């Protein structure tokens, strides 16, 4: 139910077991051959500002932003469903997944991945390795990531640190981790 976890599953060798993906899961290319189990409730071809307006309106009305294909879930009868609770705007809400599985009588194990830090990303990879029986490959991936991060840190430690702004959304400007605060509401020193 989350593109990032689909990618992780393929990297650790569990891609052969992935039977369903979201409409956004397009990497690796093999993910595109899996059955789509969730789609966006928003019209396609909207501008960033139009998406923001549509999302805000849907959330204000208490509407879901994604459609879960219960028939696909029933047909696939998964053993494990990987989802998230981090962001209601990013993927199908875990409560919707739980309700759908209960409705279908599916006893799939729901694994929720919600990393907030790089260390938690590592933990998420290890957790996915655990639930898929790919412990060794998940440990190898985490080790590789940590080694590469150490190499990058070593290569840049003597360089000046640039000031960086990270935007999750550009119209209106929206920074990750600030909830519903929009750019216009930020202190002038940050804008």
Give a written overview of the molecule:
The chain has helices at residues 3-11, 48-61, 70-76, 94-104, 118-132, 135-156, and strands spanning 20-22, 35-40, 66-68, 80-83, 109-112, 169-170, 173-174. It has 191 residues and is α/β, with parallel strands linked by helices. The strands form 3 sheets. It has a 3-stranded mixed sheet with strand order 1-2-3. The protein has a two-stranded parallel sheet with strand order 4-5. A two-stranded antiparallel sheet has the order 6-7. α5 runs antiparallel to α6 (135-156). Residues 180-191 have low confidence and may be disordered.
Quick rundown:
It contains six helices and seven strands.
Helix-strand pattern:
HEEHEHEHEHHEE
User: What overall form do the CA principal axes indicate?
Assistant: globular
User: Which percent range describes the beta-strand content?
Assistant: 5-15%
* Nearest-integer average pLDDT: 83
Number of strands: 7
Low-confidence runs: 180-191
List keywords for this structure.
disordered C terminus; alpha/beta; 191 residues; two-stranded parallel sheet; single chain; three-stranded mixed sheet
């Amino acid at each position: 139910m989350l593109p990032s976890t689909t990618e992780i599953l393929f990297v650790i060798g569990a891609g052969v077991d992935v039977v369903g993906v979201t409409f956004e899961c397009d990497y690796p290319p093999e993910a595109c051959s899996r059955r789509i189990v969730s789609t966006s409730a928003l019209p396609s071809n909207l501008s960033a500002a139009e998406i923001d307006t549509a999302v805000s309106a849907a959330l204000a009305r208490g509407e879901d932003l994604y459609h879960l294909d219960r028939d696909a879930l029933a047909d696939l009868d998964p053993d494990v469903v990987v989802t998230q609770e981090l962001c209601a705007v990013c993927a199908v809400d875990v409560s919707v997944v739980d309700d759908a599985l209960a409705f279908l009588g599916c006893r799939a194990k729901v694994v929720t991945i919600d990393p907030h830090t790089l260390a938690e990303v590592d933990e998420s990879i290890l957790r996915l390795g655990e639930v898929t029986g790919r412990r060794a490959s998940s440990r190898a991936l985490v080790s590789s990531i940590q080694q590469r991060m150490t190499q990058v840190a070593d290569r840049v430690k003597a360089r000046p640190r640039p000031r960086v702004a990270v935007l999750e959304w550009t119209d209106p400007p929206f920074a990750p981790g600030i909830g519903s605060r929009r750019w216009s509401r930020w202190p002038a020193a940050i804008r």
